[in-house]
Design a protein that fits this description.
- The chain is 23% helix and 35% strand.
- By secondary structure, the chain is α+β, with helices and mostly antiparallel strands.
- The chain folds into 2 domains: 86 residues, Zinc/RING finger domain, C3HC4 (zinc finger) (Herpes Virus-1); 131 residues, Immunoglobulin-like (Sandwich), CATH 2.60.40.
- It has a 4-stranded antiparallel sheet. A 4-stranded antiparallel sheet has the order 8-7-10-11, with no helix packed on it. The protein has a two-stranded antiparallel sheet with strand order 1-2.
- Helix 2 crosses helix 3.
- The longest helix has 18 residues.
- The structure holds zinc ion (2 copies).
- It is found in: Nucleus.
- It comes from Paramecium tetraurelia.
- Its EC number is 2.3.2.27.
Length: 241
C-alpha cells in the first residue's frame, strides 16, 4: 500500500512537488527548501533531523523517481499543490536564488625532470534553482548577464590575474600543484547586480570536481523582471474590477 504520509513534505504538508532528497534521506519540495534554508551560509541543517550539511554538496537535485510516484498515485493533490506554488511564485521577489556551478577537470602528463604535470581547466556558469523562475523570466540565460569572470591565480603564474570576457567562462593552465583560486563574477553595468565572489580549490583526483553554490542576486533592474511585475499588476487590477 502506498501511504500518502510517505509522500508528504513536512514543510508545506502537501504532496511533494519537485522533491529533493537530502543525504539523511529526508525529502522536501524544492520550493519549500529554498524558502526555508538560507543557502548563503556555508552549512545548513535538515529541517527534520537537524543533520548538518555543507552547502557545496549539491543540495537541490530533484528526485524524479519520487516525483513520478507522487504524480501517479496522488494526481489531484499534486496538481493542486503545483497550482499553489505557481501562484506564489508568480509574485517573483526582487531577490532570485541562483546556482553558481564551478569546478575543474584535469589531465596529467609525466614530465621527466619534475614529476607529474597537470593541465587543468576551471569553469564557472550560472543556472536557475527553480524551473518556475526560468519560465517566469522567459528562459533568460543567466550567463548572458555576466560582464566578465576574473580568476586570481597563484603568484607563480604570469599573469596571475586572468579576466575572461566571453562565455564559456573557463581557464586552462599547466601546473604541478593544486591551489585555491579566488573567482569574481561581475555583471553588466545596466543590471546593477552585485558581483559574486567565491573560491575554488583545484582537485587533481578522480575526474576532478563539480560544485554548486546557491547565492541571491537582486534582479529588480532586469527588463524581464520589470515586464513580469507590470503584468502581475495588470492582472491584479483586472481581478479587482
Ligand atoms: Zn513542501
Ligand atoms: Zn534529515
Amino acid at each position: 500500500m502506498i501511504s500518502k504520509d510517505d509522500y508528504t513534505c513536512s514543510i508545506c504538508l502537501g504532496v511533494f512537488v519537485d522533491p529533493c532528497k537530502l543525504k539523511c534521506n529526508h525529502a522536501f519540495c524544492n520550493a519549500c527548501l529554498l524558502d526555508l534554508i538560507d543557502f548563503n551560509n556555508i552549512k545548513y541543517k535538515c529541517p527534520m533531523c537537524r543533520l548538518e550539511f555543507v552547502n557545496k554538496d549539491n543540495p537541490l537535485s530533484i528526485d524524479e523517481d519520487l516525483q513520478n510516484i507522487v504524480k501517479e498515485n496522488f494526481p489531484n493533490q499534486y496538481q493542486q499543490r503545483l497550482e499553489e506554488i505557481k501562484n506564489i511564485q508568480s509574485l517573483l521577489p526582487n531577490e532570485l536564488k541562483i546556482e553558481v556551478n564551478y569546478g575543474n577537470y584535469f589531465k596529467s602528463e609525466d614530465d621527466n625532470d619534475d614529476g607529474l604535470q597537470y593541465q587543468w581547466t576551471t569553469h564557472v556558469s550560472l543556472d536557475y534553482t527553480r524551473k518556475s523562475d526560468k519560465i517566469a523570466l522567459k528562459d533568460l540565460d543567466l550567463n548572458s548577464l555576466i560582464k566578465n569572470v576574473t580568476f586570481q591565480l597563484d603568484e607563480t603564474f604570469f599573469p596571475d590575474v586572468i579576466t575572461v570576457r566571453q562565455p564559456p567562462y573557463l581557464l586552462t593552465r599547466w601546473g604541478y600543484d593544486v591551489f585555491t583560486i579566488p573567482i569574481k563574477i561581475k555583471f553588466k553595468k545596466e543590471h546593477k547586480i552585485q558581483p559574486i565572489e567565491f573560491e575554488h580549490h583545484l582537485v587533481f583526483e578522480g575526474d576532478g570536481i563539480e560544485k554548486r553554490q546557491i547565492v541571491k542576486i537582486d534582479i529588480s533592474n532586469l527588463t524581464q523582471f520589470q515586464e513580469l511585475k507590470q503584468y502581475s499588476q495588470q492582472q491584479q487590477i483586472q481581478q479587482q474590477q
